Amino acid sequence: MEILNLEGAEDTPKIILDKGNGIYEISGRSLPEDSAEFYQPVLDWIEEYNKDPNPETEFVFKLEYFNTASSKLILDVLSALEDVQGCKITWYFHEDDEDMEEAGEEFSELVEIPFEYKTY
Amino acid sequence: MKYIYELHKRMVDHDLILVYEGEFTQEITKSVLSMAERNMDSSGEESTIKRKVFNVMVECLQNVVKHADQLNNKNPNHNAVFMVGKHEDQYTIISGNPIKDENISIVQEKIDQINSLDKDGLKQLYKDIIKTTEISEKGGAGLGFVDMARKSGQKLEYDFEKMDNGFSFFALKSNIKRQ
User: Could you tell me the residue ranges of all domains in chain B?
Assistant: First the structure.
């Protein structure tokens, strides 16, 4: 399966979705002008991946900041991952960033996927 | 040329570290954000405060960008303004932009509802909206004001100043405490 690899920019996150190496990660800042358009390739990739997923999928969010329009799309990404058997989320937050920790907890209350929290 | 000094003096009097007036786009948003970030970095602002200020600035700026897109008019009197004030005890993030008179009550009701809620109420409202919302054509999720209130931890202040031709100037102010 093709690797989705997006370089991060000042307003868009870095994204690596690599089935072969088992790496699934969204990191950095997310405040794109058009969040729906930006996240569409991610949603498409997950849909394709879910046809034949790896036995385990550890999907990593390591976001420094995301805007509200992105939060809606992050929820869409999480909802898509709900359908993937053996998927779990690792939610990173900076150790003094309570808002990012709380954001992760809120997402975990909205979807049925196990969340693990880690600080950086 | 006296207005230059007067403008300068007014900015100093109001502790304004950044004022931008004009057209609002994503590119302008990024520039304004990076200027404000640099200012906070050079003054050694605490990272938790910096993050909150950044957060509220983004929502505020993108609100104005989306609203300007929607209005899509080239009348320079319909430009918007954005400012950041840095006071001893708090930061203030301010935006001002023209809105159609017929939209005043919608905006006002939304903000009044948000201001009537406490921390848990805001959290619940946020979750209710995010579960049901669709991203609008303007690219918004309808969560901007809620997020600004949550991240600032303060009530949102607003004002509508009558302009002309069925427009009013909508001023919005968020305060972020500097512990």
Answer: 2-177
Contact A68 B143 (CB under 8 A): yes
Distance of CA B156 to the CA centre of its chain: 10
CATH code at position A83: 3.30.750
pLDDT at B34 over 80: yes
C-alpha distance from B117 to closest chain A C-alpha (Å): 18
Tokens 């200020």 belong to residue? B53
Q: Find the angle CA(B91)-CA(A66)-CA(B16) to the nearest 5 degrees.
A: 20
Q: Which of B34, B47, B135 is opposite residue A96, by nearest beta carbon?
A: B47
CATH architecture classification, B2-177 = 2-Layer Sandwich (3.30)
> For chain B, percent helix, then strand, then coil, each to nearest 5?
55, 25, 25
pLDDT in tens, B108-155: 999 999 999 999 999 999 999 998 877 776 667 689 999 999 999 999
CA distance A96 to chain B (A): 7
Q: Between A and B, how many residue pairs show a Cβ–Cβ distance under 8 A?
A: 63
Chain B residues touching A35 at Cβ < 8 A = 135, 139, 141
Asked if the Cβ–Cβ distance from A106 to B34 is below 8 Å, we say: no
Q: Tell me what ipTM this predicted complex has.
A: 0.91
pLDDT in tens, A39-56: 999 999 999 999 999 999
From A65, A69, A94, residue closest to B140, measured CB to CB: A69
Q: Determine contact, residues A85/A53, Cβ cutoff 8 Å.
A: yes
Q: Are B150 and B116 in contact (CB under 8 A)?
A: no
Residue B72 reports pLDDT greater than 70:
no
| Domain count within chain A | 1
Instruction: Return the pLDDT at B139.
Output: 64
